[in-house]
Amino acid sequence: MSKVTKRKHVMNEALWDDYELPKENQSIVKVLKSKGNNLHEITTPAGEEYLVSMPTKFRKNIWVKRGDYIIVEPIPEGDKVKAEIVKILSKDSIKFFKESNVWPKEFEDRKKEVVAVDDDDLFVNTNRTHVQPYQSESDSSSDDSESEDNEK
């Protein structure tokens, strides 16, 4: 099988969502960071952190970034690397898992709980000079006095 054909099949498999729920030995985890050599550090819903490996068929074809959710399957010989990636979850499959009540409560979005923040509380970039907005009140009062002088 050529590289192009293999890539096409792997991409179709990854993008085609079969909406299959995780099996009992599989778990949903969140990617924390990439460690290189096709290893990724993840966190479980319980808060445990460990490394997972990217299977050979996904390498150089599919990329996983920080914040993505994946399904992993434990590997028995794992000491530092305890699991292998089975599936990378898309937004549609995450939505399906939430509707099926399979999604871990620990991974629920906190965006709904965030309250609007005042402009004063926002981060100020110290690399930029802070310019005060143009005040036209003092200029308009001087313009009024000049116009009154010109009328007399």
Automatic annotation (TrEMBL):
Q: Which InterPro entries match?
A: EIF1AD (IPR039294), RNA-binding_domain_S1_IF1 (IPR006196), TIF_eIF-1A (IPR001253)
Key word RNA-binding present in the record? yes
- Which PROSITE patterns is this protein grouped with? S1_IF1_TYPE
- S1-like domain mapped to chain residues: 17-90
Disordered: annotated span? 126-152
**Compositional bias (Acidic residues) spans?**
140-152
Gene Ontology terms, cellular component aspect? nucleus
**Which Pfam families does its entry note?**
eIF-1a (PF01176)
GO MF, one annotated term: RNA binding
Q: Does the keyword RNA-binding apply?
A: yes
- What domain of life? Eukaryota
**Entry keyword set:** Initiation factor, Protein biosynthesis, RNA-binding
Family to which this protein belongs:
Belongs to the EIF1AD family.
What is the protein's name according to its record?
A: Probable RNA-binding protein EIF1AD
Instruction: Report the source organism.
Output: Parnassius apollo
